[in-house]
């Protein structure tokens, strides 16, 4: 998979998009790069005080646990909007946004019971798409995020997608520097890897066995870890 990025600014908080736009124009996205050395194991990384980008790039399979606690996000990075679109047809495939009048943290009281039951509930997302999704060539993933009172240096995302324990693709993008109290919007452009007919049928017949780990780093230290799983049987009759 190859990838590049496109950036646009949103009004509201201080705009931090200028640097992000320059980074995108440099074409600094990297894909499918694994550093030299033996593969990392989840068990080893859970024992470490800090997890680095090279550590997760060497992971050979999806993790069962989260590699950092929720409170590692000391920069108050908050993802407020996410949209997927087919670049060939401009069709919006999926879109979700946090209400503008609900700042980060204001929903804590209403979700106390859920958070006590599962403190990681907000770190996991389940998606269901139609089989046609697997035949798309290029998809744009737009993400909007805000940051808190601290400046962010070397903000980086590494996202790894697996079917069962086989790596499908790895996306590595450097956001760079984000100013304090800023709102940023970035679109990642994915060119999907080719899947043969057998692979597509296996993925359709195996809902939620396609999984991803999304790792977010500041100054080469893991501060956020989100997970997702995917089904591609939407609209398919079980009869």
Question: What would your notes on this structure say?
Answer:
It comes from Ridgeia piscesae. InterPro entries: Ig_E-set (IPR014756), PDE6D_unc-119_myristoyl-bd (IPR051519), PDED_dom (IPR008015), PDED_dom_sf (IPR037036). Mean pLDDT is 82; it is low at 1-29. This protein has 239 residues and is mainly beta. A hairpin with a 5-residue loop joins strand 4 and strand 5. Helices cover 14% and strands 40% of the residues. The chain has helices at residues 17-25, 42-47, 53-57, 112-117, 197-204, and strands spanning 2-8, 14-15, 30-31, 78-86, 92-97, 124-128, 138-146, 152-163, 166-178, 182-191, 210-218, 221-231. Strands 1, 2, 4, 5, 7 and 10 form a 6-stranded mixed sheet that branches. Strands 3-9-8-11-12-6 form a 6-stranded mixed sheet. The protein starts with a strand and ends in an 8-residue tail after the last strand. The chain has 5 helices and 12 strands.
Provide the low-confidence segments as ranges: 1-29
The major beta sheet can be summarized as: 6 strands, mixed
Specify the overall morphology: globular
Question: Total number of β-strand segments?
Answer: 12
The helix content is 10-25%
Number of helices: 5
**Series of secondary-structure elements, N-terminal to C-terminal:** EEHEHHEEHEEEEEHEE
**How widely separated are the two ends?**
35 Å
Radius of gyration: 18 Å
Strand content: 35-45%
The residue-averaged pLDDT reads 82
Structural class: mainly beta
Topology, pairings included?
Blueprint: E1 2-8, E2 14-15, H1 17-25, E3 30-31, H2 42-47, H3 53-57, E4 78-86, E5 92-97, H4 112-117, E6 124-128, E7 138-146, E8 152-163, E9 166-178, E10 182-191, H5 197-204, E11 210-218, E12 221-231
Parallel strand pairs: 2-10, 6-12
Antiparallel strand pairs: 1-10, 3-9, 4-5, 4-7, 7-10, 8-9, 8-11, 11-12
InterPro entries: Ig_E-set, PDE6D_unc-119_myristoyl-bd, PDED_dom, PDED_dom_sf
Domain GMP phosphodiesterase delta subunit: 72-232
Protein name: GMP phosphodiesterase delta subunit domain-containing protein
């Amino acid at each position: 998979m190859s990838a590049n990025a496109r950036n646009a600014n949103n009004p509201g908080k201080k705009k931090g998009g200028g640097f992000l736009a320059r980074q995108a124009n440099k074409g600094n996205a990297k894909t499918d790069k694994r550093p030299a050395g033996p593969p990392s194991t989840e068990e080893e990384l859970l024992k470490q005080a800090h997890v680095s980008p090279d550590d997760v790039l060497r992971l050979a399979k999806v993790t069962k646990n989260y590699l950092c606690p929720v409170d590692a996000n000391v920069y108050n990075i908050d993802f407020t909007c996410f949209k997927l679109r087919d670049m060939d047809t401009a069709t919006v495939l999926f879109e979700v946004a946090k209400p503008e009048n609900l700042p980060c943290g204001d929903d804590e009281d209403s979700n106390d019971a859920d958070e006590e039951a599962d403190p990681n509930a907000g770190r996991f997302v389940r998606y269901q798409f139609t089989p046609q999704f697997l035949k798309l060539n290029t998809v744009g993933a737009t993400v909007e995020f805000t940051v808190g009172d601290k400046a962010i240096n070397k903000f980086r995302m590494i996202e790894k997608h697996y079917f069962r324990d086989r790596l499908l693709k790895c996306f590595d993008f450097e956001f760079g520097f984000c100013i304090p109290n800023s709102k940023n919007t970035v679109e990642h452009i994915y060119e999907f890897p080719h899947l043969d007919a057998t692979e597509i049928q296996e993925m359709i017949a195996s809902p939620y066995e396609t999984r991803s780990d999304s790792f977010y780093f500041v100054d080469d230290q893991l501060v956020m870890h989100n997970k997702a799983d995917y089904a591609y049987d939407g609209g398919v009759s079980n009869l």
